[in-house]
Amino acid sequence: MKGLTCANCARALEEQIQSLPYGEGATLSYNSGKLRVNERVNLEKVRAILATDGAYMVEDEQSQRKRNPLLYLVGTSIFLFVMAFLLERFTGNEVVSIYIIATALSGYKTFIKGLKNIVRFRFNMDTLMTIALIGAFGIGEWKEATVVAILFGINEYLEGLGMERARRSLDMLLKQVPKEAIVICNGQTRVVSIDSLQVGDVVLVRPGEKIPSDGVVIQGKSSVNEAAITGESMPIEKETGMSVYGGSVNNEGMLHVQITKQYKDSSLSKILHLVQEAQETKTPLELFIQRFAKYYTPFIMVVALFVMTIPPLSFGVPWHDALYQGLAVLIVGCPCALILSSPIALLAGMARNAKKGVLVKGGVHLETLGRVRTIAFDKTGTITKGKPHVTDVIAYIGENELLRIAASLESASSHPLAQAIVQKAKQHDISYKQPEQMETRTGSGIEGKIDGKRYRIGNERMFDQQDLSEQIQKDAEKLKSEGKTIVFLADEQHVLGLFGIADEVREESKEVMKQLHRIGIRRTVMLTGDHEKTAQQVAKQVGVTDVFAQLVPEQKVEKIKQLMKDNIVAMVGDGMNDAPALAHAHVGIAMGKGTDSAIETADVVLMQDHLGKLPEAIAIARRVNRTIRLNIAVALGLKAMALLLTIPGWLTLWIAILSDMGATIFVSVLSLLILWEKRTR
């Protein structure tokens, strides 16, 4: 849908469409510009209803361009008004006919809609403007009536322009959708639609092309731009075995990608779905403003009636002057700016966050995010990477030799602790080989031969107390006190060394906590099922204010409920066990590579799969809330100031329309400034 001029108009059109046969249940969203109707409804009648407000369907855009849009009509009206004004100055005669033509060009749609509304006793801004125009012509104020029509036309145009600009920022994501893919099958290539891609298909992605769906690189090496998905501006190097997002751009090399998700389940498809859902939702504030406007307009008409009748009847004010003042009150009372104070700002905020790789699933969640004062974090996979790594190597023989033996034994195991030791050896460029006669001791470790000599690696349960000297026990206790998991390596007689292993803290976690506290987040809380010592160690390292350990999912929910008694609470998590807590918090925030259940449950998704953009997302949400409050204050303040001018009789039609138009332009521009981002080198 395009050409919608205002939220009130969209609601009126929706009601008319709903009155058609099979039209019940039709929805027309001003925020997203989307119309949903039953397939059996008469589309020609729908088009006719839309046309009464100058709106049209996107498929009709070509034909719409051939018609005269509002901007050209208003431009012609301005030209005629200036010509009439100059003729009047030079000839001394009022050129009424030209003023009427100019008014008709700018205001005929408003006038027709307003007349229909009067007949139906429906009161909105079109009704106000129609009564004002009729009244102005009735008392001979031709010039003022023309200016009212022209400025109201400009107002409508700018209102539609602001909303369209905010929508376009979100719709830019749609351009990231690839249309086709090159599938490799039996050495042959063929072009297929991305909708027909199946899991397991191998696609060829050439330089400059978009990756069609989520997958894994099985051949080739290249840098990939994932900005459309994660918001990261720097390309990321991809090689065999690494995952890639659909919609990201291959920069220079040839990649063979095995598809792991059909397009409909891909990250990009989910992003687009979330964005479309977000545009459809309305915040409590938006709903309140719309309800307020519904009663506010009749109230203004009653006030105008009093202004027109009480002064002449009670104070002897001339009827002409009272009618003039009453008409000005009607124009001042137009609720355009008030209705616009929220939707443009919310769409701009969601668009700005989407560009940063932070998806907010609706204006209501953005509004709540801006009011968050306490944030609870899951530990594993959120504050930490969820991947064990070796933090300490205590060697009683040469360290390289210790790593060589340990990596050789662990190379046959897929256990995360074993892989951490193998990775440590790789980091030191230490070569290792497969063990001989390997035996697994369930729950304790591995035994095997390396170069004909038997070794053991595992936890304390593999060793008798007499095997552990006083120094070894002291070293082990130190690692335990730091919350680390200990792996022992021994030959048949002696313990050769210890490994301290812990979940690796994300590089950005400490800085993120500092930024959150700096922007006014009062409490940062870590909730984890891990042991107390491990949790305290991580909490101390990253700087959270509170930590609760050894929690099962139900206990996490209870902690969230307790925190919610004092503040607006956000919960950040990535796993299936976090989903209940995400659902209960005021705002649930999921990591981009978290489980599907966490992402589906959450209200906000961090597509970068790290916390780096969280402080900025909250700052943007707060700016949106501040902007909306300022918009409402300005919209109502300007109207109140203009209405006060009726007391001394200073309110004119010129002042009335300029105050209304000024408020509308102000709220539109201020809301769109949310999209603006200062560029730094």
From TrEMBL:
<dbReference type="InterPro" id="IPR027256">
    <property type="entry name" value="P-typ_ATPase_IB"/>
</dbReference>
<dbReference type="Pfam" id="PF00122">
    <property type="entry name" value="E1-E2_ATPase"/>
</dbReference>
<keyword id="KW-0472">Membrane</keyword>
<dbReference type="InterPro" id="IPR036412">
    <property type="entry name" value="HAD-like_sf"/>
</dbReference>
<dbReference type="InterPro" id="IPR044492">
    <property type="entry name" value="P_typ_ATPase_HD_dom"/>
</dbReference>
<keyword id="KW-0104">Cadmium</keyword>
<comment type="similarity">
    <text>Belongs to the cation transport ATPase (P-type) (TC 3.A.3) family. Type IB subfamily.</text>
</comment>
<dbReference type="InterPro" id="IPR059000">
    <property type="entry name" value="ATPase_P-type_domA"/>
</dbReference>
<dbReference type="InterPro" id="IPR023214">
    <property type="entry name" value="HAD_sf"/>
</dbReference>
<dbReference type="InterPro" id="IPR023299">
    <property type="entry name" value="ATPase_P-typ_cyto_dom_N"/>
</dbReference>
<keyword id="KW-0597">Phosphoprotein</keyword>
<keyword id="KW-0812">Transmembrane</keyword>
<dbReference type="GO" id="GO:0046872">
    <property type="term" value="F:metal ion binding"/>
</dbReference>
<feature type="domain" description="P-type ATPase A">
    <location>
        <begin position="177"/>
        <end position="276"/>
    </location>
</feature>
<keyword id="KW-0378">Hydrolase</keyword>
<dbReference type="InterPro" id="IPR018303">
    <property type="entry name" value="ATPase_P-typ_P_site"/>
</dbReference>
<dbReference type="Pfam" id="PF00702">
    <property type="entry name" value="Hydrolase"/>
</dbReference>
<dbReference type="InterPro" id="IPR023298">
    <property type="entry name" value="ATPase_P-typ_TM_dom_sf"/>
</dbReference>
<dbReference type="GO" id="GO:0005886">
    <property type="term" value="C:plasma membrane"/>
</dbReference>
<feature type="transmembrane region" description="Helical">
    <location>
        <begin position="653"/>
        <end position="676"/>
    </location>
</feature>
<dbReference type="InterPro" id="IPR051014">
    <property type="entry name" value="Cation_Transport_ATPase_IB"/>
</dbReference>
<feature type="transmembrane region" description="Helical">
    <location>
        <begin position="628"/>
        <end position="647"/>
    </location>
</feature>
<keyword id="KW-1278">Translocase</keyword>
<feature type="transmembrane region" description="Helical">
    <location>
        <begin position="93"/>
        <end position="111"/>
    </location>
</feature>
<dbReference type="InterPro" id="IPR036163">
    <property type="entry name" value="HMA_dom_sf"/>
</dbReference>
<feature type="transmembrane region" description="Helical">
    <location>
        <begin position="295"/>
        <end position="315"/>
    </location>
</feature>
<keyword id="KW-0813">Transport</keyword>
<dbReference type="GO" id="GO:0008551">
    <property type="term" value="F:P-type cadmium transporter activity"/>
</dbReference>
<dbReference type="InterPro" id="IPR006121">
    <property type="entry name" value="HMA_dom"/>
</dbReference>
<keyword id="KW-0406">Ion transport</keyword>
<dbReference type="InterPro" id="IPR001757">
    <property type="entry name" value="P_typ_ATPase"/>
</dbReference>
<keyword id="KW-0479">Metal-binding</keyword>
<keyword id="KW-0067">ATP-binding</keyword>
<dbReference type="GO" id="GO:0016887">
    <property type="term" value="F:ATP hydrolysis activity"/>
</dbReference>
<dbReference type="InterPro" id="IPR008250">
    <property type="entry name" value="ATPase_P-typ_transduc_dom_A_sf"/>
</dbReference>
<feature type="transmembrane region" description="Helical">
    <location>
        <begin position="70"/>
        <end position="87"/>
    </location>
</feature>
<keyword id="KW-0547">Nucleotide-binding</keyword>
<dbReference type="GO" id="GO:0005524">
    <property type="term" value="F:ATP binding"/>
</dbReference>
<feature type="transmembrane region" description="Helical">
    <location>
        <begin position="327"/>
        <end position="351"/>
    </location>
</feature>
<keyword id="KW-1003">Cell membrane</keyword>
<keyword id="KW-1133">Transmembrane helix</keyword>
<protein>
    <recommendedName>
        <fullName>Cd(2+)-exporting ATPase</fullName>
        <ecNumber>7.2.2.21</ecNumber>
    </recommendedName>
</protein>
